Amino acid sequence: MPTANPTTQSPVETSVDRGLPFSARATAAAQNGTEPSISCSRCNKSHIEYELHYNCATCDDGNWNLCLSCYRAGKGCLHWFGFGYAASAKWEKAAAAAARANEKKQQQAPLEPPHVLTSNRYNPPKQTPGGAEGRRTLTTDDPALRLESGNFCARCLAWANECFWRCDVCNEGAWGFCNACVNQGYSCTHPLLPLTYVAPAPPSPSPPQSSASSVHHQYQNHLTPPGSPRSVSPSSPLPSPSHSPAPSTRRRRPLSATLLTGPNAPVGSGNFKPLTFTTTCDVCRGSIGPTQHRYHCFECTSRVVPDTLPGDYDICTPCYGRLVAEGRIAPENGDGGWRRCLRGHRMAVVGFEETRDGQRRRVLRDVVGGVGLRVEPYPTNTQQQQQQQQQDEDDANRGPQQQPALQKWSWEAPDGPSRLERLVTVDVAAAVPPSQLVGEMAMRTATDQFPPEGGAGARALARWSWYPQPGASDELLFPRGAEVHEVEDVNGDWFYGSYMGAVGLFPSPYVKVVRNAASIAAAVIVAEEW
């Protein structure tokens, strides 16, 4: 397995008071004007305070911190039982075994509940760096006001407390995405639950919980951030990390999202409450409720909803049907073909399903051709085009018309190493002339069929996580439980596939190859036996 057993090496000293818990030390450092300095307690990597890192508030008096690499490698803290829901199950088994042992030895000390790691990151100060190693150790810019804590996108690592799309399958449920990545197709294909952080109410007395229920409650709250001196309303623009292209847009709750309320509304996970989405059709400007399916473009930006990012573009089902009926989208580019938007991008069909935890977003029909579809310009033979144009004019007894610009779209053949190819019009309202449907590609690789939704090739379920080494840009990252699409066998030892909108190589033993969605569902059921 790719995970490693925790070690018991000595933690590294930090520059803040070791007698305070993590959240309190942040405040103390701010009051003293001291910039935090945090090192990884496993690999000793220094200065991870400006990177996404994980903290245990119990181990080493709250000084136990992990860099992202050590966390994803499963190294944890000194009393860590794993990721997400699997940790609770492992602890319950260990607690039951400890209880039986205690009964035999007449001991009453139960097993300590598992520790929960919180994710954190400081934004660097705006001042010019100085001091040792180019860092500023004293600053008037309060570090506590630059602390990000809670949920971070598994793909781009953006802070996502305002809208976090949680997956309950990938990485045992300790996995999720920011709204921008979900809208642009850079997420997994599992149902996703949208959550937002709501500040806790003043504490009230509560009845004592049993040991097992206490641990379950603790893991329901594993996404809840620790207290922070900063208080920001959900509608307020938040300061942007350096990698965010649109500060006020990327970091706030989407305008189409509201808290899911009502007498039967789910309680959420700790201080994270479920959202409900009512989007706007970018054609008729009507509302699309969560129970309605919509055609979603991962690339277009809405011209109807203000201050949006690419991927915030939806068309209601009636409008898309009218676009095809009115000829604004040719039938081969419509729902029975490539399913393209007015600008030519391939679209998915998405919707929401009611679950006990809230309304989960599902990709009902993935983009035709998947991520691995190859788009190339198609050089037109001028003489052939003129001859065909004259023939079409004579047959239809109509005036001269310009032939549409074409592209060549190709994908992997299902029964061999070759690629299938099909001509496609650049203008979605135009259709490929029948004589050019195959055109100059009159060979065994040409076809008048469409590739499968979600892409060609097999699918696979990740037995273990695979996190490539830094610099391995041609390899594919995925966690345990991920559904990898468009899988191809490269040489027996390595496969090629797609996940989170990316493609790349990965070791074949890390996945179980299945052939269809039904097999994926069956594999998920037995995944706990691995």
Automatic annotation (TrEMBL):
Presence of the UniProt keyword ATP-binding in the record: no
Q: What is the lineage of its organism?
A: Eukaryota, Fungi, Dikarya, Ascomycota, Pezizomycotina
Which residues are listed as membrane-spanning? none
- What processes in GO biological process is this protein linked to? protein ubiquitination; ubiquitin-dependent protein catabolic process
This protein's superkingdom? Answer: Eukaryota
Q: Which UniProt keywords apply?
A: Metal-binding, SH3 domain, Zinc, Zinc-finger
Listed GO MF terms: ubiquitin-protein transferase activity; zinc ion binding
Region span, Disordered:
99-138, 201-253, 374-412
Q: Where is the SH3 domain?
A: 455-516
Would the keyword Ribosomal protein turn up in this protein's UniProt record?
A: no
Q: Which InterPro entries match?
A: E3_ubiquitin-ligase_CHFR, SH3-like_dom_sf, SH3_domain, Znf_ZZ_sf
- GO CC annotations on file: nucleus
Q: Which species expresses this protein natively?
A: Eutypa lata (strain UCR-EL1) (Grapevine dieback disease fungus)
Q: What is this protein called?
A: Putative ring finger domain-containing protein
